[in-house]
Every structure is written in structure tokens, then in C-alpha cells.
Amino acid sequence: MPHPLLEVDNLTIAFPHQTAVDGISFQINPGETLGLVGESGSGKSATSLAILRLLPPTANITGSIIFDGQPLLTLPEPAMRRHRGRSIAMIFQEPMTALNPVMPVGAQIAEALIAHNDGIHHPELSRRAIREKVLAAMHEVALPEPERRLHDYPHQFSGGQRQRILIAMAIINRPRLLIADEPTTALDVTVQAQILALLNDLRRTRGLSMLFISHDLAVVSQVADRVAVMQHGHIVEQAPTHQLFHSPQHPYTRKLLASAPTMQTDRTQPLATLA
Ligand SMILES: Nc1ncnc2c1ncn2[C@@H]1O[C@H](COP(=O)(O)OP(=O)(O)OP(=O)(O)O)[C@@H](O)[C@H]1O
Ligand SMILES: [Mg+2]
After folding, report:
1. Which of 57, 80, 217, 267 is the most exposed place for a label (fewest CB within 10 A)?
2. Percent residues over pLDDT 90 in the chain
């Protein structure tokens, strides 16, 4: 057994008036994608923010989160800052709000590169080297005509292209773990499929591990090796994706399967997404 890249053990997140996450445990192995699925308010985003230690101080967090052998919850802030955006990167649901509307996208991708390089691991990068890395990242996420679009602003791109820009920013420092929180929810179905295909490509070419969060089990099934189902702060079921689909154990999982909006309902047929 390889040792897991991420080990979450008995994680509890309590806000002043409610417990958002109540003793969950899961692991992500190198190169593996874990899907975290559950209805709104079940604690998915709180979990991902706890991994990056981005929850507000009002959150009382207990349990342990171990990344590559290092306990994150007790790590001094400067060491945590070095993980954030570098070994662990994150992409969110709404690409427009995550981008700066008044800065050209090339500059924003460059900023993601520079902000997470402290000069120890990457000696001073020349302007030209930065430009080349930015163009390579834009190319890798299949943004058309990167040279020409470098100086364009976020509003000049489509929703799907903006999500590609955010993915470029997330991968430019070669993270080992990518946390994707509802990365395709704001996109229409065709564009969503393209972004999922891109994430699958990146996994394969980069051996990236991923925590993929969605309320949509059908979407999760297209990228996840295993799925953890969350309800009211608990993981009620955790299984390899095909097993979860073909023999769901928990009533809530069955309910999610039955109500998944983009899923075919004929269970006698194999699911297209699992081919
Ligand atoms: N900063 C906060 N302060 C207080 N309560 C919070 C905070 N963040 C989240 N919560 C609460 O914790 C619970 C879990 O929220 P979380 O954002 O993790 O849900 P989610 O599963 O990501 O939902 P969604 O699918 O809508 O994104 C919710 O009841 C929410 O109101
Ligand atoms: Mg959320």
C-alpha cells in the first residue's frame, strides 16, 4: 500500500451555532480522485476549507488532517502558507468572482506563479521565464491562442474559459493535491463535460490527486475513483465509484442516485459515464 497523500481522521468543525462537520474520516492516495458528494449544507466546503486552513477563527476544528505525512492543523502558519496554492491548490465554483476583473489574465496567472514561489525552491524567475510558464499553463488547459489572449481581461472570456484560467492558476505550481469545489456547477452541460475531461487529462498527465466536491453524483462519477457521501456533517457511505452506483448501501445514497438530474434512470443499462 502506498502511504496516503491526504489522511483526514475524525475531523469535526463546529461553528458557534452549529456543527458543520461531525467526525469524518477519509484518505486520498497519490494519483487518486475522491468525490465528496452531498446536499447543500452537508459540510463539503467546510471540509475543503479546513484542509487549507482557510476557515474563520470562529470555527472550532478537531481531529487530524495529515498531508504527505505532515499534520496540517498544528502546522505553523508560514509553513501552511507554503502548502497553500503550491502543494495543495484549489478551484471554486464561480470563476468570475475568483478572478480580478481589472487585471489581464496573463498577469493573474503570473501572480499565482510568483506568489507561491519564495525564492528557495525557485530561484528568481526572469520576466521571460515567467511569460513562458504562463503560456505553457494556458496551453496545457487548452485556452485558445494563449499568446494573443495573454493581455485580455476576464470578462472577455467565456465561463468555461474562465474556469480554464483558474485551473491554469491552480496547476502552475505543480500541486500534488487539487481541491475542486463544485468547479462545473455554474457551467452548462456541454462546457461542464469539457472541464471534467480537462481535469481527467491533468490527473493522468500529472499524477494529480484530487478532492472533487459536487452535489451532483452523476458529475462526480465522471472523475472520481471513490466517492464519499456526506449528509448533515457525516460521511454516511464511502465506496469505489462503480460499487456505489451498482449497490448503494445507505438510503441517502439511493435517494441521491434516484434524484440525480443528469443521470439516466434505466438501471438495467450500464451507465454511460462509467464506460
Ligand atoms: N463561516 C461560517 N460560519 C458559520 N457557519 C458556517 C460557516 N461556513 C459554513 N457554515 C455552516 O456549516 C454548514 C456546512 O456548510 P458548507 O458550506 O460546508 O456546506 P456545503 O456542503 O458546501 O453546501 P453547498 O453545496 O451549498 O456548497 C452549513 O450549515 C453552513 O451554514
Ligand atoms: Mg459548498
Report:
1. 57
2. 77
